[in-house]
Amino acid sequence: MATIEAGRERFRAALRDYQRAAGGFLTGAGLWLLIGLFFVWAFFQHRDALVTGLVTGSVFALGAIGITLIYGILKFGHFAHGDSMMLSAYLAFFLVSGVIVGERQDTQALPVNLGDLPGAGERIWEFSFGYGLLLAMAAAAVIMAGVFIALDRAVYRPLRRRRSGIVIFSIASLGLALVIRSLMLIFWGADPRSYTRGFRSSFDLLGTRVLYDQLFIFCMAMLLMAAVYLLLYRTKLGKAMRAMADNPDLARISGINTEQIVLWTWGVAGALVAVAGVMLALQAQLKPEIGFIVLLPLFAAAIVGGIGSPHGALLGGLIVGAVQEVAVSTDFPLLGEVSPGYKFSIAFIVLIVILLVRPRGLFGAKQ
Amino acid sequence: MPENVVLEARDVVTGYGEVEILHGVSVTVHEGEMVAVIGPNGAGKSTLLKAVFGLLPLRSGRVFLKGEDVTNQRTDEVVRKGLSYVPQVDNVFPSLTILENLEMGAFVRRDGRRDRLDQVFSLFPDLVTRKGEVAGRLSGGQRQMLALARALMLDPQVLLLDEPSASLSPKMVGLIFDRIRVINQGGTAILLVEQNAREALSICHRGYVLAMGANRLDGEAKGLLENAEVGRLYLGA
Ligand SMILES: Nc1ncnc2c1ncn2[C@@H]1O[C@H](COP(=O)(O)OP(=O)(O)OP(=O)(O)O)[C@@H](O)[C@H]1O
Ligand SMILES: [Mg+2]
Predict the structure, then answer these.
(1) Does the beta-carbon distance from A253 to B55 stay under 8 Å?
(2) Whole-number pLDDT of residue B1
């Protein structure tokens, strides 16, 4: 009897050890291996979808890094991020075309706009847009930085003073998201629009057709991600932002003016939101509801990478974007094809799978 | 007020929410002096430091730094005026590197950072070799050293220390106290809150005994060490 008991105990211990080791592998090297395998497989089987996915993913990453920054400093999920992106896209659209309300942009344009500058509409290199759009994007970045700072003063700072919980902050941002969407509908209507009409030129990359515009979007996103990285790890302001995300009380104790850091964070997030929004509209189109639809992949990207982590946002964005596109172009056994209508829900599946094996995301902090 | 007082808390009344914790506590620190604040758990020692540093609003009473009234001033202002504080817990930035932690300690400084860094590293040579590592990986003792080092980056007039020896091994306690003495010998005035009453009094010039949010006793550290009541209550004699 005793030997059987002992044997059972040994077996249980062995099983526990095995599970622990397997769990360790699954959450560590195994997960990275799986991600790597996915990209290799997609490269050989679904190259077109992978390229589109990485471009979309780079825009998600740009949005997700703003969410991660705001979460790090203010500790709440900023649900107005997607709609702010779309609003910025419309702002740039307005600045470059002068169109506010109207069915057709040539009939209702304001008399003066950036698109009227000499040569502003002429295509740069092989892109589908001229420098007018870039100017509009830069202007939108400045405006959105100001808008975010103003919203902090008007909405979030009073909540901070009252020491409201994070749920209140998130609900407030959700309310703002609804307001922003209504404004877009009022000013620009529900019909889809785009920055440029006419054809978009493309080039061949390893047998895949890639738009020059997509190349621009991807490079722009990577450039800005690099800039954010430099800000956070190389400048005094960025280090203070990370310090505050880490331990806000000690940041205050060190003499960091935390309210000032909060304003800088909104400013940076606003500028990033503007560029991300213009890139999103350039990749797809301008349409008020897209702002809310992208919220899911944006948060998925931020959380998959580990919320609060800038490189996590980058990788999370690329993974979510790529999986999304590849999934809707794959013929699954049993399931058949996935309708493109489910594209954004796939972000949710990626999110759940990764959180199941790694509750804090790929680069999430330990405790 | 005499010339050489650098820090004075006068009749401080404060608390959390409805509850009043300090009912009028006074402490004074002179230039170059090291002063201990001892007392049982919950006496209000940490609360006193928070109030002096401006993290807790005072209900009444005043705080003077070098003769200037700094009562209820913003913390970044108080830091600029030369007051540094090492809290009892959570006193490093765990995901920042050691070097970045130190840079944050000098956040309000515009110049002289290199010199401060050299000086702090010479005081805590252990930190030099690990300066690129994140602080979260340090052991308890090294963390405490980093916390001290961060506060010293300011080159403060007065240093407030909240139980720097808490939950450290006896060997580490000796090391930390030795470093604190060296810091004080360098001219920095220190207000030291401690549970380790005997060790604290043995390196300090003067001491205050706090009990239930009020001053109980104060005087020369030697006198307090020999005081019968202090001995019975806190020194386990
Ligand atoms: N944030 C807080 N909110 C409410 N009450 C608090 C808070 N911090 C401390 N207290 C209470 O204030 C009283 C004094 O606490 P304080 O931390 O100042 O004591 P202490 O002398 O530092 O004790 P210890 O030796 O344990 O550190 C205690 O009764 C404690 O419960
Ligand atoms: Mg305490």
Answers:
(1) yes
(2) 41
- Nearest residue of B to residue A251 by CA position? B104
Mean residue pLDDT across chain B = 92
H-state helical runs in B25-93: 45-53, 75-80
For residue B230, the distance in angstroms to the closest alpha carbon of chain A comes to 32
Write out pLDDT tens, residues A134-181.
Answer: 999 999 999 999 999 999 999 999 999 999 999 999 999 999 999 999
Any long-range contacts for A223-229 (C-beta under 8 Å, 24+ apart)?
A224/A62, A224/A272, A224/A275, A225/A61, A225/A62, A225/A65, A225/A310, A225/A313, A225/A314, A228/A65, A228/A69, A228/A268, A228/A272, A228/A310, A229/A310, A229/A311
Under 8 Å between Cβ of A364 and A307? yes
Tell me the domain boundaries of chain B: 5-234
Measured between beta carbons, which residues in chain A are less than 8 angstroms from residue B53?
253
- Closest ligand to residue B87's CA: 2
CB pairs under 8 A between A and B: 63
Strands B60-65 vs B5-16: parallel, antiparallel or unpaired = antiparallel
Q: ipTM value of the model?
A: 0.94
The domain spans of chain A are 58-290, 294-367
CATH number for region B5-234:
3.40.50.300
Which residue do the tokens 């104060």 mark?
B218
User: For residues B220 and B49, what is the distance between their CA atoms, to the nearest angstrom?
Assistant: 21
Whether B154 has its CB under 8 Å from any CB of chain A: the answer is yes
